[in-house]
Every structure is written in structure tokens, then in C-alpha cells.
Design a protein that fits this description.
393 residues; mainly alpha; DNA polymerase, domain 1; hpI Integrase, Chain A; 3 domains; 3-stranded antiparallel beta sheet; 12 strands; 45% helix; elongated
Length: 393
Amino acid sequence: MNLTELPDSGVRVGKYLQNRWRIIFTWKNKRHFIYKNWDGTKLNEHNAERLKVRITYDMTEHKDTFDPESYKHTVKNFDRLVLKWVKESTCGQDHKRTRERMCNNFFIPHFKKLDVPAIRKKEIEDFFKSLKEKGLAAKTVNNIMHELGGFFHWLERENLITKIPPFPKLEKVPKRKIDWYTREDHKQLYEFCTEPVFRFLRCSGARPNEARGLQKADIDWNKRCVSILHALPETGFKVKGTKTNSHRAVDFFDELEESLRAGMESSPKNCSFVFTKGGKPYTRRILQTSWMEMTKRAQGKYNNLPRLSLYEGTKHSRAMQMLNEEGRSLSDVQEALGHVDIQSTKHYAEMLPGRRADLLSNGVTQKSHKTNSSESQEKLVAVQGFEPRTLRI
């Protein structure tokens, strides 16, 4: 049927306020009013006439399946949808908890039950302005805005909005300087190490929460490798996936194997965790406290030894040593540390002026400088049903 030759089905367009239009029709003895497009925008005369033709056609040609409600805008509350976005997020558990805190502390109090298609450039700019007025650090503001942008990209993918509203330009924040221990620093510090978890952190490239969550089943003594599959959240002992939900395996070498065996020996037989203290898995706070106590003991002998955080003294230090003291490539460090995105690894290169140009131009493709073939040997191994590339670090 030609849309221009549709029979009169009783669908009418009417103006009820200045520049405000609506569609009126009756279906099965019930009157229906439509004031908005499906995306929540108000009808103008042109859009109302177009929608009238569509409704008339469907009423005539699809009587059995015609549903008046399908043309009515459904309110898509911000508070409900933003929490659904968090729930469906595939990021790591710690990141998901950060998103949830941002929702409860910033997003929901500002946008509340606002209809998401009604959030435009002005509403985004007002939110951005409110964050700056709270006196938050520029980096914190940027992080919050990036997460809000992620939410709107999700809305677009779910067809809940037709277009992402423009976001304001964010302030450029200088990258934080990385403090790290040299291999000589580590030698001095680890004279006072009595807990195997810190030796594992130094040589494995694992994150602290990955070391806390390491399971005895993650070690393959026959294939002589350990799989980094699990992590513990900031609170509680419910094992989750890693920060990036990635799986990686690390081949045994002397220090790594010794740290694992020492952890196994001190862990109770009925405990699934490799590294424990007092018969229980490490909490985040206990691990950090033990690290600072070890650092304090080392500084009693070596006055010039800096005091670094656990993350700086292990994962960051290992990455910087690989790049600065061992001549490794960015791809080596990316693989060893479990970075999904090479951009995360490039931050280390930017802290090394002497190698910066070389690393940033060739870091992804260049082969490592094989000063010691046993240290840089790469193998393909099969661990617990997957086959990642592994790198001796």
C-alpha cells in the first residue's frame, strides 16, 4: 500500500501548546496520546505528521500485531540504568566497586531519575562544573568523566540513546612520576624479607591482589609454571578474576620456584591459598603493613634506601628494572606484567628519558636484548586448558 493513499483511521495531529504537538487516536475503544518521539524528544509538527503516517499504516496493515504502547516513549531513569551498567560490567571487581562508588557518590545524586535521552550537552557540562566546584583533583575529575563517558557508550550500544552528547574538554594532567627500586636497592631490602609472598611479588610481575589470591591449584609442578588467574578484592576472601580478567603463565626460575615452595610449606594443608599469614590468606592491610615493616628494618641498616609503597616496590620496580637495567622491550614488559593495553606499559617508558624514543618507537615490535638467553627465553605452554605465551622475567 502506498503510504500517501492510506485510509482515514482516525489518527489525528493536534497542537495543544505553543510549539507543542501530539498525536491522538483510538484503538480497541481506548484513546491514546503520544507527546514524544521514542527517544524522549518532544514532537514538532513535522515529526508528528510523519509518525501519524507510520501509525496509520501499522493500524491498517498489521491489525493483529499493532501495539499502541510501542510508539510511546518509555522513561529510562538514569539511576536505574547506571546501576544496571555497573552490574553488567566485565571489568575487574576492584574497578567495578570503584564504578559503583562513583555512581552512588556523584552520578546518581546529580542526575537522579532524569530520563537519559534528555541528558544533553548542557546537563553534562553542569555535572562537570559541579565536580570542579567540589574541589576534586583534576585527575579525579577526569576519571569520573571517563567513567560517565563509558556509561553513555553503553547506552548507545544498548540502543537506549541515539547519540552520545558532547563532553567538555578535560584538563590535561601531568603523569605521576614512578618511584622504583633498582636491583641493588632490592638486594638491600630483601636481606630483611622473611615472607615468601614478597619474593614472589618481586620476581613474578604479579599485582599484590593477584599474589594474595594465588591458589595452590594454579601451580603446575610438572610443567614447571604458575598461572596468574585469580585475585582477591580489597575486602573479603572471595576469589575473583584478575584486574583485566586476563590469564597468563610464568615459567619457573630459581627465585620464583623457591618463593612458591616456601609459601606452600607455610600454608595450612586445608587452605587453598599459597601465601598465608597466621594460617589465613593475607588481607590487603596486613600485606601492606608487613611490607612497610620490612622496609623499616632495611632502612635501619641502609639509610639511603627509599620507602616505597608495595606496588611501587614490586610491580613498578620490576617493570623499570626490565626496561632500564636489562634492556627489555615494551612488549616484554607488557606480557610479564599482564597489561592488556600497551598504553599502560608506555607510561614506564616515559619515565626513562635515555630510552624513551627507542622504546616508544619500537617497543611493541622490537625483540628483547638477549643479554642472557636463559632469562629472556620465551615458550608456549599449556596450563589448565589455555595456551598463553609465557615469558621468563
